[in-house]
Amino acid sequence: xxxxxxxxxxxxxxxxxxxxxxxxxxxxxxxxxxxxxxxxxxxxxxxxxxxxxxxxxxxxxxxxxxxxxxxxxxxxxxxxxxxxxxxxxxxxxxxxxxxxxxxxxxxxxxxxxxxxxxxxxxxxxxxxxxxxxxxxxxxxxxxxxxxxxxxxxxxxxxxxxxxxxxxxxxxxxxxxxxxxxxxxxxxxxxxxxxxxxxxxxxxxxxxxxxxxxxxxxxxxxxxxxxxxxxxxxxxxxxxxxxxxxxxxxxxxxxxxxxxxxxxxxxxxxxxxxxxxxxxxxxxxxxxxxxxxxxxxxxxxxxxxxxxxxxxxxxxxxxxxxxxxxxxxxxxxxxxxxxxxxxxxxxxxxxxxxxxxxxxxxxxxxxxxxxxxxxxxxxxxxxxxxxxxxxxxxxxxxxxxxxxxxxxxxxxxxxxxxx
Length: 418
Ligand code: GDP
Ligand code: IMO
Ligand code: MG
Hints:
The chain has a ten-stranded mixed beta sheet, with helices on both faces. Strands 14, 16, 17 and 18 form a four-stranded mixed beta sheet that branches. A two-stranded antiparallel sheet has the order 3-4. With 418 residues, the chain is α/β, with parallel strands linked by helices. It has helices at residues 16-23, 76-88, 108-121, 133-141, 155-170, 182-193, 200-209, 241-248, 281-289, 308-318, 386-399; strands at 3-8, 29-32, 41-45, 48-52, 65-68, 73-74, 97-100, 104-105, 196-198, 214-217, 255-263, 266-268, 302-304, 306-307, 322-326, 336-345, 348-350, 361-369, 403-407, 415-417. β3 and β4 (48-52) form a beta hairpin. It binds guanosine-5'-diphosphate, 6-O-phosphoryl inosine monophosphate (IMO) and magnesium ion.
């Protein structure tokens, strides 16, 4: 058996949570492989809306095992509140959520360091979610980190050593802080202790031998990847498909389908280049109809047209085999839809992402007619308006990868497999 991977092709918030929830009945195991509570994955069903941060989006389907693997950075405080909310809904968790002993822990001073570092950057701030992601991955690669497996190995002493290191670092910043969250942190640690903590790499590879089906759930998006995103305006993990191998402990040859998910337009939250951004009424319209406000921070998301230069780059990096287009219904009332097919930089046309973030990039747009139809109640491809079929055909021809799912609303039911 192989592991299928689902990941975002843009700057995050493509609708990964919704689609993982839709696909979960086809899988025995759902595995989150990178990122942390900077993610906000929204699921909607039975008139109920739920946002997950650390916990995989397979959690609402019975009989599915959910894994938080080694590539994830886990915040015990956020985890505790997520568990409380799920238990209040009657979800049984202790048997169907396992955590890697090699996952790194976010401690309160990581979050303080994140805030201090952003404040010190002034105008050039990243627009981080301030969840402590950068400092935690820095401690991981700096070989100072605290891991879930340390809960059974002299934990308090290791925690104090790391905290002391952070306090030394914080002296370099002119930044006021308090450690009032420590109590909640240790409460969260006790919650983590209730869960099965294992070497998930062994378990995943055993599941594959046993013929079990596994879907890996990505967080953030390809254009926020630490290596290939618009550095430094990126997150601190590898969000691309290769990150699923290192984030779970599977061989590249164990990857099966790669589901690439993109919005029918584009959004970005936080700082950094966004060539097809709309700073006008059309951008505001996308934000209003698409309810484009961050699931983790509530910040308004920047909106723009679909960018095929960026999307093709993402396809190349991930080896996407099937595409999923979400939020298609958000375009229902646009007479004309625009798609960026190239960039013009100082008069030169290019189909490559520029290295220079300061470069004056002008997107070159192709215009397509809108469908002016309410898609939210459509449940079969036969009901698609002609203009939507044309939009899909145009994208498939450009991208050379089939679009297999079209999402037409936030609910679990609002999706069409084609
Ligand atoms: P994720 O981080 O990739 O899981 O995406 P988010 O949950 O942060 O953001 C996606 C938002 O769009 C959520 O509010 C979803 O409920 C919503 N959503 C997902 N798919 C669709 C869709 O096809 N149409 C509309 N209108 N909303 C959608
Ligand atoms: P999901 O999984 C959208 C962005 C932040 C910021 C940059 C770095 O819901 O798609 P960080 O907190 O990682 O230091 O922030 O990355 N960012 C996201 N944007 N969706 C996300 O996750 C994001 N996670 C981080 O806004 O620009
Ligand atoms: Mg999100």
